[in-house]
Amino acid sequence: MPPKKLPYSDFFDETLTRDVEELLSRFQGADSVRYSDFSLIWREMRFADVFLGICRSGEAKSFTRVSLATAMKYFLPPYSFQIRVGGLYLMFGFYHTQLVVPPVNIRLALKDITAVQKFLVDSLDAGHYDIVYIYEKLVAARAFHYTAMPHHLHFQKQKKPKKDPVCSSFLGRTSAVHDLLSLDLLEELSNVHIHYTKLKESTVEVGSSVNMSQRDLVPPLEKCMKEFVTWQQKTFSQGQNDQNTDDEGDEKQEKKKKRQSKAESSSRVSLLQSIKQKSFQNLPVASKSRRHRQTQVVDSPGSGAEQVPEGRKKWQRPPSLRARTWKSLGVPEEETKTQAWLLSAPEEWESRRLRGTSKRQHADA
């Protein structure tokens, strides 16, 4: 009996991904990167029970590998800083609550090490020491397995592999424009521009001949930044809605294709059945007394080709070599009942009998 197919693929599980996104959305709503806030949400959702109920060790190991890969996905770019922190805490929780012995390691590809180091440097600069502490705890427990690829290499893949959807609300947005608007940089830029204009006007020689800057630089710059922020918010919200509508449209298209394939298969089957019925209806059936006979085509000048039953022929001995030789030489063969090969037999038998008797007489003497 073949083994039962697992309900999840090699890289991710849809139901687990939905639960992980629910946990990270709650952590994002808390507007914090502290581990204490994450652990509170973890205990409320009873996330430590995801590994319970798996009896077979092979299936438990595969599900643990998928869980760690899902957490690693949210720890890497292009997600925002807070979601990446939640992915790190999620890896820490999955690794220490798994039931596999020895524990399954976390696969960290070599191409992602640079992004992880930059993330740790940014956390240290921002003073988030609990993030660095959790990462160092995983390193001390030898939880990371540094590999060339993020997943195992398989040569037999599905024709249409499942695609892991990306949650648009977790993606990191460009925050440089927000920093310019939130800080007093525009006011400082305005003061510098006014000072430059005054110095230029005080110099009579170059006051009117040189134009190196635009007049009223700050108001159009502030207008452009506000337009960009508005466009960014509208694009992200529209992208999330489009993703939901695309998912619904894909499901409808798949259902439509299945219906069309079923209709085509049923029409094909009905066509084949009708062809078979017609072919068997037109087949001539012979009578029982003529079924064992073979048909032979006989050409006649009057009636054309006719099928005449032919019975069994009597087997005839082929002509001998002597008859064939005489026939080729043109010598007529004499009709005689005497068999030619028996004419010299009596003389041979007589000579053999005489030699046998003479031998016996010498022996008696």
Automatic annotation (TrEMBL):
InterPro entries linked: SNAPC1
Recorded GO MF terms: sequence-specific DNA binding
User: Which portions of the chain have biased composition (kind: Basic residues)?
Assistant: 354-365
GO CC, any one term: snRNA-activating protein complex
Q: Where is the composition biased (Polar residues)?
A: 269-284
Region of interest (Disordered), ranges: 235-339, 346-365
Give the residue range of the signal peptide: none
Q: What is this protein called?
A: snRNA-activating protein complex subunit 1
Please name the taxonomic classification of the source.
Eukaryota, Metazoa, Chordata, Craniata, Vertebrata
